[in-house]
Design goal:
By secondary structure, the chain is of the alpha/beta class. The chain has 12 helices and 8 strands.
């Protein structure tokens, strides 16, 4: 089976590398194209056997499964290039959250799904979000999930919740890395601890916390209770930070949803029929 990737920017190249590292795809099973040919050639040089296509039509026509890893406002151009070489037997997966599955089903004859990856997939971990179109059988869905499990923990979500789940699963690493950096900088500023040591400890702490929450069965509330001794240091610290983060995260979700609504409107404009 040949898997194609149109777009080899940050997320497209991440997916290719993750699938190859996981052994889910051999380089010879991958064909890719990008508007900057040098980016695809760099991947081909790194993974001998990977085919650098000369154009998007070549990638689309030779792929059983095709990932569209392009920006929302570039989607129309790509669809116009590849539409007439696609068949109902193929699968098209878009990683662009504002591009609606129904719009793609109107344009293409294939099975369509939205698959939103996370940077954590690079280390064969973390979630991928999946919203299926109307042409999928249960067997087809399970086959895609088996493929995605090689690099992640796939989760089917209604498309109406793709934004908030993306905030949690896909943007979340940036949000929490930022909080972790603030945590480290505060420790350094207040106590004089050297930053390198503080950062190393904080990263190991976060890794262990993630394992407690995913492997040991703790919920966030249970973990707080387990660590906190009444009247102790942790309780004092939690009380100090409880005044702000709740409001900050509410503002975060409001801001990301407002931007998403704007992107949805702009992206949908590509699929509107011309006015008579």
């Amino acid at each position: 089976m040949t898997t194609g990737f149109i777009g080899t920017g940050s997320m497209g190249s991440l997916l290719i590398e993750a699938f190859v590292q996981a052994g889910a795809l051999a380089p010879a099973q991958v064909i890719a194209s990008n508007r900057t040919a040098a980016k695809v050639q760099a991947l081909a040089d790194r993974y001998p056997g990977l085919r650098a296509a000369q154009h998007n039509r070549e990638t689309a026509s030779e792929s059983q499964t095709l990932f569209l890893c392009v920006k929302p406002m570039e989607m129309r151009k790509v669809l116009d290039e590849i539409r007439d070489v696609l068949t109902p037997s193929q699968t098209v997966l878009t990683i662009s959250s504002p591009v609606q599955v129904a719009h793609l089903e109107q344009e293409l004859p294939c099975k369509i799904a939205k698959v939103v990856p996370s940077i954590t997939n690079f280390v064969l971990s973390g979630p991928t979000l999946v919203s299926f179109g109307s042409r999928w059988s249960e067997e087809d869905k399970q086959s895609l999930f088996a493929f995605l499990r090689t690099i992640s923990a796939p989760s089917e979500v209604p498309e109406s919740f793709i934004r908030v789940t993306s905030d949690i699963a896909c943007c979340g690493p940036a949000f929490f890395a930022y909080l972790l950096q603030q945590f480290v900088e505060a420790a350094v500023d207040v106590t004089g601890l050297d930053e390198q040591r503080a950062e190393a400890l904080a990263c190991e702490m976060l890794l262990g916390t993630g394992k407690l929450l995913t492997e040991a069965g703790f919920t966030p509330k249970e973990l707080c209770r387990r660590v906190t001794v009444p009247g102790g240091i942790t309780e004092i610290g939690l009380a100090a930070i409880a005044k702000e983060p709740g409001n900050a995260f509410r503002q975060l979700f409001r801001a990301t949803h407002a931007k998403f609504e704007e992107d949805l409107h702009r992206t949908a404009g590509q699929f509107m029929p011309p006015s008579v």
